[in-house]
Amino acid sequence: MTTREESDSLGSRRIPADAYYGIHTVRACENFPISARPINIYPTLIRALASIKQAAARANARIGVLEAGRAKLIEAACQEVIDGKLHDQFIIDVIQGGAGTSTNMNTNEVITNRALELAGRQKGDYAWLHPNDHTNCSQSTNDVYPTAVKLALAFALEGLLGELEALADGFGAKAEEFSGILKIGRTQLQDAVPMTLGQEFQAFSVTLHEDVQRLREAVALLHEVNMGATAIGTGINAPEGYRQEVIRQLRAVTGLAVVSSGDLIESTSDTGVFVTFSGALKRTALKLSKICNDLRLLSSGPQAGFAEINLPPRQAGSSIMPGKVNPVIPEAVNQVAFAVAGADVTVSMAVESGQLQLNAFEPVIAHSLLQSMTWLQQACGTLHRHCVQGITANEQRLRDSVARSATVITALAPVLGYARAAQLAKLALSSHRPVTQLVGETELLEPTELARLLDPGTLTGAVQATPAQAVRR
Questions:
Q1: Terminal-residue alpha carbon distance, the chain
Q2: Higher pLDDT, 464 or 181
Q3: What gap in Å lies between CA 234 and CA 446, rounded to an integer?
Q4: Do 440 and 455 form a contact (C-beta atoms < 8 A)?
Q5: pTM of the predicted model, to two decimals?
Q6: Cα dist. 171→205, 223, 260, 378, 415 in Å?
Q7: Beta carbons of 450 and 421 less than 8 angstroms apart
Q8: DSSP assignment, residue 313?
Q9: What is the reported pLDDT for 465?
Q10: Inter-residue contact 233 to 266 (CB < 8 Å)
């Protein structure tokens, strides 16, 4: 293999001649063989890093600390990375010591070597264009990395929100389809009052749309960044005017409404925003999991369970029981929710464990949050396309359960009184006779009044009930 030689403060190493990364990346790969998952599994993180380097190059050129020709080459290399090229060169493990320094250096080296190539020079010609002196000019890992994580999360949220909104709309479409199907609601897994299957699915839609809004609110907090803080927030080695200019350029490059933190020392050490964002992701995941629990219960059977709805069959469910079909899509989404909840604990521990002017554990924060977002996005899409769109109602089963249910007596309690209604409900359960038959036999209500009170629209709240008169005996 053809190689080139690169040196750092620890010595020299041979680097593959065609590699865009350099010696710092190679050392980090040797030091952190942890997860076998390189940072390029998160394209939004790579895009964010390149966006920062591009904005910094523009800012440095404008304030006169980076020669315009070199700045243009760095910009061009960054744009290629933003457009999706060279991502295979970002090979640092997602779990790493050094507060993200390895990731920042991997980025500096890839962009520098591509810029050198664009200039017609050899990779590794750092005397002409240097990863630290030029590509990392006016920067530190300690402002680049946390800013990159925030931008990556904001980028990634676009995909997640798209799938979440589509899923919520999918439940809404089912709500319309099932709007006229009466069923018995349940509280504490016991029969409650009637509702429509459409109302049940509409609740799923509404609760997910609420989480879209909560996530939009949480992502706004990510727009405050600490570029210009450099090492600990004092701005050492950041020239006058750089802080303001790099924010302007970062807005232009990303299209995000980024702003500079009010106190750079505070924002360099504080990672509380990641706790807030992680909490919003966990909320969404747990609500999705609850919905999946409901889908699994409602489809349980098909003979001995609830069997109120039918999930689309996706695969054979057993290696021993012929014909068995399991709710595999909701089960998969449940497991994603468990992982997101666990990641939230990881983020919380990492945020709490930062010391003094820097949190060294931002890599695991980034990995936890980006993994949660990636998995949630895929889970929402899978649940929508492979499950929700194909759900059907078991209408005969639902009609039978409503006809047998003693809980419809609740609608008559204001007229009959709670005690008498309870007696009738108990008699209906013990005799296996419909409430309507028992009320009719006792002539406690006129037939027309009974029919009106037990009309599906009245039972489900679609029509406001008016007082009825009991027959006095």
A1: 102
A2: 181
A3: 83
A4: no
A5: 0.91
A6: 5, 32, 40, 17, 36
A7: no
A8: P
A9: 53
A10: yes
